[in-house]
Amino acid sequence: MEDNECQPLETDETKEICVGQVVHSLEEAYNLYQEHAFKMGFSVRKGRMLYYDSEKKNIRLKDFYCSKQGFKNNEREGEVAYERGDSRTNCKAMVRFSVTKDGVWKVTKLVMDHNHDFVPPQQRHLLRSMRKLSEGGLIKSIVNGDIKVTNVRSYLGEEVGGVDELGITMKDVHNHVYTEKPKLIEAGDAQSLLNQLQSRQAQDAMFYYSVQLDQESRLTNVFWRDGKSKVDYDCFGDVVVFDTTYRTNKYNLICAPFVGVNHHWQNVMFGCALLSDETSASFTWLFKVFLESMGNKQPKTIFTDQDAAMGKAIEEVMPNTIHQLCLSHVAKTAPSHLGNLNSNHKFQSLFRKCMSGCDSKEEFESTWNEMVNEYQLHDHQWLSSMFKIRHKWSTAYSKGVFSADIESSQRSESKNSLLGEIAGKTTTLTQFVLAFEKMVKKWRQLEAEKEFKNSQSMPPRIINISETLRHASMIYTHKIFKLFLNEYLDGTGGSTSIEISVCDDVSNHEVTLNHMPNKKHVVAFDSSTLMINCNCQKFSSMGILCSHALRIYNIKGILRIPDQYFLKRWSKNARSVIYDRTHKGSKEDSSSNCIDSMTTGDDAGILYHHAILKSLYNLVLESQGHKETQQIMWNLLDVGVERVHQHINKQSLNSSAIANENTSPQNEDDEHVTICNPLSAETEGMSGAHKKGHFEKRKRSTTKAKQNKEQRKEENFCTVGSSMVEPSSVPHASVAAPLKEQHLSTWGSYTGSFHSLACYKK
Question: In angstroms, rounded to a whole number, what is the distance separating the alpha carbons of residues 256 and 253?
Fold first, then answer.
C-alpha cells in the first residue's frame, strides 16, 4: 500500500503510524517504525540512506525494512555462514522517510503487507531490533566484575523480573561485553596500565608503583601495591611467600605476588609484580622496589620456588632474611628428576621424611644416608644439589625459623591456587590488574567478616573452667585459638611426661605424645622466670606454644601463660594502631630530630615518614564510615596542623625548604612520555597458567625463540649492580640522556615522578 495521504491502518494497534506523519530526527523515525513492528510482531532492519551533501551527511531520504526483506547472502564463504539459518522471505514491508533541508522527517511511503507469519506476543522480546542493552554503570560493572558472561543474562533478568522481560539473548550479552572490554585499553595496553596505576595513586595517598622500561620504552617489569598492603605488611610482614609459578596475559609475563598470612591465618596481599623474565637483574630490581615500598623493612623469612637467580637476588637485597623453599614446589618438581624411583614406596617414604619428618639434623642425615646408600644414589645430580641446600627445604634445619606454619598441609592448597582463576593467555595488562584488585578485595572482605566475628563473640573453650583457655581465648583470634586449643588438649590429655633432671630453678622434662610413643621431646622449665623451651621449637617457628610445653605448664600449676608467649601478630589486636616513635626522649627533641633526619635523608626520618603515614592511614580507614568520626579526624587535623606550624615558626625553619623536601620534583614532560607494550608472546608453545611438575608437563618454547629472547634482553638492558642509584638522587638531566646509551627507566613510587636510571659501568 502506497498513499500520499495520511490514512489510519486497519487495526487499532497500529493507527499511530501513517503516511504523512512527521518526526524530527533519525532516532525518532527509527523508534516510530520499531514500535509499530513490536506491536505487529516483526523485526526492523535499517535500509538505504540518501544525502543532500555526502560530505556533511545531510540526510535526504531514509528507508527502514522488515528484517525478512530480500534473500540470504550466499556469497559469503565459510562454515559459520553456511550454518547460519535462512530467515529471509523477500518481504516487501517497509517505510520511507523524506527529510526536508530544515530537518523535518515525513513518512512518504508505507508498505504494510508481509509474506510471513508474525511473532506471537510472548516471543516478541526476542526480536532482534527489540533487543537492547542499556548503557551505563551496570554494564560497566558487569564488564569489570567477576560475573561470568554466561551468568550476566540471568543476573540482569532477575533485576527486571525475568529474562522474558529483559529483551536480550545470550549472544547480545556476549557481543556487548566483548565490545566494552577493548575500551579498557584505548591508550594501548602498557600505557593504559600506567594510566590506571596513576589513577589509583590519585585515589590512595599511600599507593606505590614502579615500572621498568627497556631502551625502546617498552614495558618489561612492573610492581604495585596499595596503601592497605603497606599496613598489612607492617602487621604481618615477618613471613612472605613470593610465588612466580603463574604466567598471565598475552605477553606471557610472569605474575609474581607477595603474599603473607594474617592473624586469622588467611592470605593477605603485600603487592604484585609482572616480570618479563626470571633473570637475577629482574629479581634484584623487584626486591629493591618491594623493600623501598615497605620502608626498607626486610621480612624474617621468605618462601620461594627453587631458582638460582632468585636466590642470588635475595642474598644480595635481603641479607638479613632467611630464604626457604616451598615444600610443595620441591614435591612437585622432584618426580621429573627421580625416574623409576617415583614408583618405589620405600624411597618415597624416606624422601618425604627428609623433607618434613625429621626432628633433628642428625636424624635427617641418618635418613638421607640410608636412602642414598640403599638405592646407590651417590652420583645422582639432582639429589646431590638438593643436599647442598638442605637448610632451605628440610624442616629439620628450619625449626628455629619463624614461618607462621606456612608450609602446613592446611595452607598448601590455598597458597598454590592464588591466581589460577584470573591468569589467562589472552588477558590484557589492564584486565589482569582489575581482576587482581577484585581478588584482593574478596580477601579483605573475608578478613572483615572474621574481624566482626572476633569482636562480637569469644571462641568456644570446650573446658570452660580452664583459666589457661579463658585467658588465651581473650587474646587469640578464633582461628589461632583453635590451633592453640588442639595443642593444649594434646598436652594435657594426650601425653605423658617425666622429670629427667633438675639444676637450680631449671628442670628438664621428657614429654611423649600418646599417639607417637617413639618420639620424645625435652622441655626445659625455669620456675623463677616461668620461661619454657622445647626442643621441637614450635614457638620459634609458629609463634604458638607446643603441646609439650603446655603439658609442663599444666603439671607445674601455671594456669596463666606469660604474656611473652603471646605474639601480637596472632592476637585480636594485631591491627591496633601503634604510634611508633623513631626517637625516645621529650616530645620537643623527638620532633626536632625527626625534621633534621628528613632533611638529611637519615634512616630515622624514613622510619618516621612511614610510621606517621601508617598511623594516619589506619585512622582514615577506621573513621571513614561515620560522619561523627570523620568530624573528629578533621578537628584533630586542624589542631595538629596549627601546632606543627607554630613549632616550625618558633624554630625559624625555612618553610619553602620544607615544602621542597616533602614534594618530589615533577617532570613537565612526564605526561607526554608514552610507553610501549611488551613483546607479545608466541601463542604456540606458551604455557597455560601454572607451572607443571612431572605429571603435568608444560609445553616449552622452541630453542630459537629462547635465543631470540636472550638476544633482545642483552640488547635492551644494562646490568644492575649491587649499588643501584636511588631514584631520588638522579638529577633531572638524566631524563634527557641520549637513547643510544643503554639505560633502565623507572616510573616511580607514590610521588608520581618519573626517573631514568643511567647505566653506570663497573
Answer: 9
